[in-house]
UniProtKB/TrEMBL annotation:
Superkingdom field: Bacteria
UniProt name for this protein: GNAT family N-acetyltransferase
One Pfam short name: Acetyltransf_6
Annotated InterPro entries: Acyl_CoA_acyltransferase, BioF2-like_GNAT_dom
Lineage: Bacteria, Pseudomonadati, Pseudomonadota, Alphaproteobacteria, Sphingomonadales
Domain BioF2-like acetyltransferase residue range list: 179-299
SUPFAM superfamilies: Acyl-CoA N-acyltransferases (Nat)
Origin species: Sphingobium phenoxybenzoativorans
Amino acid sequence: MAPDPALKTGIPGTMPVGQAERWAELSAHAAEANCFYTPELLLPALAHLDGQDVRLIEAKDGDTAIGVMPVSVERHYGRLPVRNAANWMHRHCFFGAPLIRRGHEQAAWAGFLALLDETPDMGNFLHLSGLDAAGANAAALEAVCFAQRRAIVEIKRYDRALLRSALSADEYWETHVRSKKRKEIRRLQKRLAELGTVQSRTLTSAADLTSWCDDFLALEAAGWKGEEGTALQCRAGDTAFFHAACAAAFAAGALHFLRLDLDGRAIAMLVNFRHAGGAFSFKIAFDETLGRFSPGVLIEIDNLHAVQGDAAIGWMDSCAAVDHPMIDSLWAERRSIVQYRVALKGNGLTRARRTTAFAAADIAERGSAFIRGYRTA
């Protein structure tokens, strides 16, 4: 049966019961994991992170949901004043793959694109960010575009650290981290222990969730992110989102929250979210006054042991920026993250407008690439 796409303009933080149930069931059978688009994280984001204009595109096969993607309409494409549809990635979202039912990847993308084609106010083309270049979404999207003779352009890609290995934590540590660095970290661990009792903990009790969230927010805000105004605690909406997302993820068994304490006080904390056999490293915070002991590195060592010792976590995406000096030195694997621009079709003036806008974006991108190449030559 052909997919039956439906355009939903979601009320922030809410969803009709039937749609919420379909979404949760779809999330459990996703072809590609993305914790940021699960109900546990996306609903709090819609409620607290200025997501009022986000539309949830739902592709269905009969009564079965086969795809869900949050879409926003952007007024500009870079510096080009051209409206375009984009998979919504808020400021705390680090992966953009839609939730698509395993075995229905191409049907879901065909449904998404058909719906956007038929909706003139959704912009002139589709701009997709944060996809895995080797993932199920990218493969299905490219196949559908090829079959439909629909233009698709890869705009940009970069690699970021990924942890995926069958080795034990100790074996991985010995194999992938330089001996000089291992020796230095052992020295730092010993020096830190001289200051007091060092304890590594993982959140297991719902009764501790609020205090752990508060400790994380305070720890992050006390550092450079607080000074720059980018810490979660700097915005009321971000704080509310963090609490709500952690609570929903904990209730769903998807929160992986670690801390490193010195005499009972948190000096490093790490928040991860699980989904579909993998996990995403969301945020890290550490006491910068103890920077000489590298508490961020020390908690990443704890994280390595936790991930490699948990059969339910087959891999972890660092969600880190390109060439991140700390995590790149600890994790050897890489994940290629890609952006695409996809042509949208239509009828009459809509089709002509979209064709013109897509060509204008081509020219603008080629010009930018030329300028970058000239300046670096």
